[in-house]
Amino acid sequence: MNDYLIKAYAFNGTVRIYAASTTNLVEEARQIHGTWPAASAAFGRLLTASLIMGAMYKEDQMLTIRIDGGGPIGEMVTVVDAHGTIKGTIENPEVHISQKDKLAVGMVVGTNGFIHVTKDIKIRDTFTSSAKLQTGEIADDFTYYFAASEQIPSSVGLGVLVNENNEVFASGGFILQLMPGATEETINKIEINIQEMKPISELINEGLKPEDIIQLITLGDHEFIEEMPLVYRCDCSRNRFEKGLISLGQKELDQLSNEGHPVQITCQFCKKHYEFSIQEILDLVDLAKK
Ligand SMILES: [Zn+2]
User: Fold this and answer.
1) What are phi and psi of 11, to 5 degrees?
2) Is the predicted pLDDT of residue 256 greater than 90, yes or no?
C-alpha cells in the first residue's frame, strides 16, 4: 500500500478527520537517519502527525514542527508542506529503550520541553506557537497542543511497529477535530468508537486503509473530501548550500579556504554530501564581496 492521507467530514460537518498510512516513508526515514527502534517510533509518529497537520493548510504554506523533550534522542524537526511532502531530522537517531516489550517512546523523547509549530503562511512573517510536552508519546502532545495553542478539541492517534530486523512495517495515524456545532451525543459516540479501536499501528498492520480507520471512528457517518499521496522528499541542492556559504560572509569563507582542504557539507534532512573545493570556496568569496 502506498502512503496516503484521507480527509473526511463526519456527523453533518461538525467533525473533521484525517487518517494516514505512512509505513513506506517512515521506513525510508529510518534508512536515511539510521534510527534505532524506539527512535524510529518517535520520529515516525512525529512525521505522521506533521503530514496530517500540513494537510490542514493550503497551497504554498509550510510548517516546521520541533519537539525537544530533553530525552536521549534530543531534538526532532520536521518541515512539511500542504501537499504531503515532508523531510525531517533527529538529533540522536541511535537510541533505543523498551519497556514491557513496548517501544518506550515517551522515555526517549522526554517531557521536559515543548512542541513548537512555526507557520509560514506566506502573507506575513512566520509565527510560532508552542505547548508544553505532556507525555512525550507524541499523540498526547499534539492533542494538548491543539487544545492549548489553537483552542481546537482534538483526538490524536499515532503508531509505528518495528520488526526484529528493526525495519518499520506499519505506521500511521489519525487526527480528529471537533468543529463548532459538535453535539455531546456526537462526542460520546466518537469516544466510545475510539476506545473500542485497536492501536492504530496494529490496524495498519492488519491491512486497514486510512478510509477504514475513518469508518471505525464514525461507523459510517462521514463523507470523504480529499485523498493526498504522502512522500519523504528533500529539496536540497548544491545551489542552496552555495547560497548558505555565501551568506557566511567574506571573512568566514576566507578562513575556510585557508584551512587548505575541501569543505564537506552533509544535508541534515537527507544525508546527501556536497563537497566544495578550495577554488570553489574562493569563487564564493568573490560572490560574497558583491
Ligand atoms: Zn537534503
Assistant:
1) 50, 60
2) no
